[in-house]
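Each letter names a residue; structure tokens follow underneath. Both lines appear below:
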Amino acid sequence: MRTTSGRRTALATTALAAALALTACGGGTADTSGASAAPAAPAAPAGGPLDLAGVCPATVVMQQDWQPEAEHGAMYSLVGADRTIDAAAKSVTGSLVAQGVDTGVDIEVRPGGPNVGFQPVPALMYLDDSIVLGAVNTDEAISAAASQPTVAVTSQMTISPQILMWDPATYPGKSTIRDIAATGAPVVTSGDVIPALLESQGIITPAQSDTSYDGTPARFVSDPKILQQGFATAEPYIYQNEIAQWRKPVGSEKLADVGYSIYPEPLAVRADKLDALRPCLQKLVPIMQQAQIDYLTNPAPTNQLIVDLVNAYQTGWTYSAGVADFSAKAQVEQGFVTNDPASGVFGRLDPTRMQQIVSTFGPILQHNGTITAVPDPTSLYTNEFIDPDVTMKMG
């Protein structure tokens, strides 16, 4: 089962889908016959920064860690209008179109979670060496460092959108995780990393930890005294608009406010392929930096593709246009996607923060038996390919 750094747990796939099926957008099929009728993008100038032909693989395979959703918008935004959706293989392929031009290679985006038997992204990357970039949470990279090492090459989301949520009516006047945890409220999560972090900070006691969260709203609806994990980019909208048994606001606080400092889903390569991919990454990483910014500037077309993919894949997961729109706005408005605070460069990984992440989560993962040795933080990332001129325009 995935750690809590992932988007959802294995059980959440069918259980949450069943709970949302009453209200979220329904299923359906997508056109898998081939190219769309939209006009082709013009070719990138030969040899220019957007020309990937000859330096990148003919098909740049990108692996996500969960079902298609707006948090993965940068990857999906690069799939050209000539795309083909393979509902059986659970993938979408098309020309890799960046900043309005065809880069000369194709892109294939693969979802994770139930589509790959809930295997972690590093494991998938070592099983299939056609994968160029994988979305690997920093704590997952620490966990896999000994046997399946990956190197993050750019951040896409700066701050984790994971939250703990609660019922405001049950806890009037309380606005923080710490305040509500002080009442003795159970903390319901799908894994032991979050409670271990909170215990290490004295926010909860071991008795408050409940790792039975299955991704459904049933427990929260029936027992609103609990603190429950979720995502600021999804659950607040879903509970207020798509859970018929709730349909009211929830209270929440970002786990990042209480030490959950990981980089969520930075893009990584296999450590043993870094040298071979270097010519490609010199052009591809700046494209990925800009792709996230461009997606959030105009998310609607990509969000429609994401919803279409969910409907085509038919895994039981549901994802509405309303959630996608809410997520894209929340990513910006709540500061989950922002420039690196240390440098002002979008997509850069801060060395001081990486050291702090390893110092925090290495011992936790060591204590729970996931790892035997804490890796060197510098082995987990590189800023070599970052374009320092790529920045988000704030405000």
Remarks:
- Confidence is low (pLDDT under 50) at residues 1-30, 32-36.
